[in-house]
Amino acid sequence: MKNLMLTLMLSLTLVGCGDKKDTPGKGVIGDVNAGKLLAERDCKGCHGMDGGGAAPGIPHLAAQRAPYLLASIGEYKEGKRTHAALKDMTGHMTEAEVRNVVAYYASLPPVPNAPAKDVQQSSPYQEGKSLAEACAKCHGEDGNSKTPGTPSLAGQQPHYLVTAIEEYHQGDRKATAMNPMARGSNKMDLEKLAWYYASQIPAQRSAPPFGDPVVGEPATAMCGGCHGAHGVSTDGATPTLAGQDATYLVNSMKAYKKGRQNWGMQRYIAGLGDKDIENIAAYYSIQKSLPAGSVPSSVKELADKCDRCHDATNNPSMVVPRMSGQDRDYLVMSLRAYRDGKRQSSMMHNMSFAYSNAMIESIASWYASRPADKN
Ligand code: HEC
Ligand code: HEC
Ligand code: HEC
Ligand code: HEC
C-alpha cells in the first residue's frame, strides 16, 4: 500500500500540473520522437509500432494512460511484476528512455477493435439461470426444493456446489437422480450454475415430521466450527446446512457412515446414532439461511463497479489502466493473476478474489469489445 501511494505520488509529480495527454513531439512525460526510435528497436516485435499487441495475451499499449505505463514499467524493473523478457529489457533502460517510450505509446490513437454484439446481454448470472431450468423439476424453481430427499441449492456455497456435482460426475457420490444430470457439464457451466444458486434466497422451512430440534441443537456444538453459526457456512468449500431439506440431511449424514468419502465428516458422524441424526437434521432444517453471495445480474452492473476506479473521469488522480479495447486474453490473464495472488495489487486482489473463471471471461469480453476510444 505504501508503495502504491509512492508510485501514485511520483507519477503525479511526473505528469506535473498539466494532466493533459501528450501531443506528438512535445510530451509532458518525455520525448515522443526519441521514444519512437526506442520502440522500433526494442518493443515493435510484440507491441507493434501502432501499440497493438502482436498476439493474443500481449497488451495493447496505444492510448494507455501514461502514469499507468510508467508505474507498470517500474514494477517490471523492480521485479514486482514478473516477466523475464520485460525485466531484462526495462532493467537497463534509463529513466529518460522509459519516459520517452511511454510518451510515444501513450500518444498513439487506440487500436481499433471489433465490438461484439452479444456481450452486452450475456452474464454468468443469466446463463446460470437458463442452465438451472434443467434442475428445477427436482430442486425447485429457485433452488428451494419441496421434495423430501432432494436438497435445496438456494444460497448454497458455490465452490461446494461445483465439487458436489463433480463428485457425482466422477462416480465418487452415487445417486440415480443426479449421476445422469452431472454428465456433460463443463466446469464453466458448473460455475455459472453454482453462482446462480448461491445468490438465490433460501426459503424458511417449517419443522419436519421427525426429530426434535431442541434436542438436536447441543449435538451440533462441534459442527459450527466448519458449518458456521446455525449452519450458515461462510466457507466456500463447506456446505450450508441451515434451511436444508431434513430428509436429505439425514440421508447425507448416513451416507458418510456408509462410504461417502470425506475424512473430516466421517469422523464427526461416526459416533451419532439414528435418533441423534434426526434431531440434528430437524435443528438445521428450520434455521434461517442466507444467500452465499450475490452475482451482479448483468455484466454492465459488474463493470459499473470496476469503473468506479478505472474510469478516469471518476478518478483523475488514481493510477489505473484504461481497459476499454484492451486485448481480451491479456485481461483474462491479468485478472486471474490478481485473483491467484501472482500479480500484486491490494486493490485489484480485493476486487477479483471472489470471481470465478466464468465471471472473469465475461468481464474481459465486455471491456475488450467496448469502443476503444472510451475510458
Ligand atoms: C517478447 C515480447 C515483448 C517485448 C519485446 C516487449 N513486451 Fe511489453 N509486454 C509483453 C507481454 C507478454 C506483456 C504482459 C506481461 C504480463 O502479463 O505482465 C507486456 C507488458 C507490458 C507492459 C504492461 C502493460 C499493462 O497494461 O500492464 C508495458 C508497459 C510494456 N509491456 C512495455 C514494453 C516496452 C516499453 C517494450 C520495449 C522497450 C516492451 N514492452 C517490449 C511482451 C513484450
Ligand atoms: C431427477 C431429479 C433431479 C434433477 C433433474 C437434478 N437433481 Fe440434483 N439431486 C437430486 C437428488 C435426489 C439429489 C440428492 C442425491 C443424494 O442423496 O446424494 C441431488 C443432489 C444434488 C446436489 C448435491 C447437493 C448437496 O448439498 O450436496 C447438487 C449440487 C445438485 N443435485 C445439483 C443439480 C443441478 C445443478 C441440476 C441441474 C443441472 C440437478 N441437480 C438436477 C435430484 C435431481
Ligand atoms: C472439520 C470441518 C467439519 C466439521 C467439524 C463438520 N463438518 Fe460437515 N462437512 C464438512 C465438509 C467440508 C463437508 C463437505 C464434504 C463433501 O464434499 O462431502 C461437509 C458435509 C456435511 C454434510 C453434507 C451436506 C450436503 O449438502 O450434502 C452434512 C449433513 C454435514 N456435513 C453435517 C455435519 C454435522 C452434523 C457435523 C457435526 C456433528 C459436521 N458436519 C461437522 C466439514 C465439517
Ligand atoms: C479500488 C479501485 C479499483 C477497482 C474497483 C477495480 N480496479 Fe482494476 N486496477 C486498479 C489499480 C490501482 C490497478 C493497477 C494495479 C497494478 O499496477 O497492478 C488495476 C489494474 C487492473 C487490470 C490490469 C490491466 C493491465 O493493463 O495490466 C485489470 C485487468 C483490472 N484492473 C480489471 C478490473 C476489473 C475487471 C474490475 C471490476 C471487476 C476492476 N479492475 C476494479 C484499481 C481498481
Main beta-sheet strand count, sense and barrel state: none
Estimated share of beta-strand residues: under 5%
Average pLDDT rating: 86
Principal-axis shape equals elongated
What would CATH call the architecture of the largest domain? Orthogonal Bundle
Name the CATH homologous superfamily of the largest domain: Cytochrome c-like domain
Distance between the termini: 25 Å
What is the number of helical segments per DSSP (H or I, 4+ residues)?
19
Structure description:
The chain has 375 residues and is an all-alpha fold. The protein has 3 domains: 1-111, Cytochrome c-like domain (Cytochrome Bc1 Complex, Chain D, domain 2), CATH 1.10.760; 124-285, Cytochrome c-like domain (Cytochrome Bc1 Complex, Chain D, domain 2, Orthogonal Bundle); 307-375, Cytochrome Bc1 Complex, Chain D, domain 2 (Orthogonal Bundle), CATH 1.10.760.10. It contains 19 helices and no strands. The longest helix has 16 residues, at 32-47. The chain is elongated, with a radius of gyration of 26 Å. Residues 1-27 have low confidence and may be disordered. Residues 42-43, 45-47, 58-59, 61, 69, 72-73, 81, 83, 85-86, 89, 101, 321, 333 line the site of one heme C.
Show the helix and strand layout.
Elements lengths: L1 H14 L16 H16 L18 H13 L5 H8 L3 H13 L16 H8 L4 H4 L18 H13 L8 H4 L4 H12 L14 H7 L4 H4 L18 H13 L4 H7 L4 H12 L13 H12 L17 H12 L6 H7 L4 H12 L7
Bound molecules: heme C (4 copies).
One heme C binds next to helix 12, helix 13 and helix 14.
